[in-house]
Amino acid sequence: AVYATTLYSLTEADFDEYVTRPEFREQEKWSHATRAFDVLKTKLAETPMLKHFDVSRESVVIVYASDWAISGVLTQVHDDVYMPVKFTSRTLKPNELNYDIVEKEILALLRDLNECYTMLAGKPVRVLTRHTTLAWLFRSKGLQGRLSQWAAILSPWKLEICRSMRGEEELLGTLAASITPRAFVDAALEEIAPRKRASRIAVI
C-alpha cells in the first residue's frame, strides 16, 4: 500500500505530459514513479490473500508511518496467524510532514477506522503500534489543538492500544508496510519517495 502512494501524487496532466512529450519521461518524478510501479507489481504478486471480514473474530488494526506516508491494515487472527482483511494508505500532506511519528500513526489509525467503519463500528478493536505514547492520547485530560480533536473523534471507539511485542514486530511491520520487513522499509522507500517538503513555520 505504501508503494502506491508515489503514484497517487501524479495528476491527469502528468500522464498527458508523459504520453504527448516523450522528452519529459526522463524527469525525476517519472523515474520514481516507474520504480514504484515495478516494485508494486512484484509486491502485489507476493501479497497474502485477503480474508473476508468475520464478525465473530477479534479485529486487530496495525498502523505504520514513515517520513512521507501513512498506512494501516485491518487483520483478524486465523489459526494463530494475523491475516489481512483490508489495507489502507496515503501520502502525507505538506503540513502533516511536520508531525511527529506518534501523530502520524494517529492519522493512520483514523484513516483505517474510517475506511473500515462499516466493519468495525460498535465493535472492540485492538490497535498494534510501535509507540506506547499512542495510548497516552486516551488518558490525558489536558489535550489541546489537533490532539484534542483527534481524541474526541476516537472517543466513541472501543480501542485497546497495544505495543507490538518482540516476536510480533517483524510480522506486524511486514503487514503494515506492505510486505517489506520493517527493518528495511525506510531505506527501500528512499528510492521511490515523492519529493515533498514540509510546510515552513513562521517564527514571530
TrEMBL record:
PANTHER family linked to this entry: POL PROTEIN (PTHR33064), RIBONUCLEASE H (PTHR33064:SF37)
One annotated GO biological process: proteolysis
Pfam short name (any one): RT_RNaseH
Species of provenance: Phytophthora rubi
Keyword Metal-binding: no
Keywords per UniProt: Aspartyl protease, Endonuclease, Hydrolase, Nuclease, Nucleotidyltransferase, Protease, RNA-directed DNA polymerase, Transferase
Domain of life of the organism encoding this protein: Eukaryota
Protein name: Reverse transcriptase RNase H-like domain-containing protein
GO molecular function terms noted in the UniProt entry: aspartic-type endopeptidase activity; endonuclease activity; RNA-directed DNA polymerase activity
Source lineage: Eukaryota, Sar, Stramenopiles, Oomycota, Peronosporomycetes
Spans traversing the lipid bilayer: none
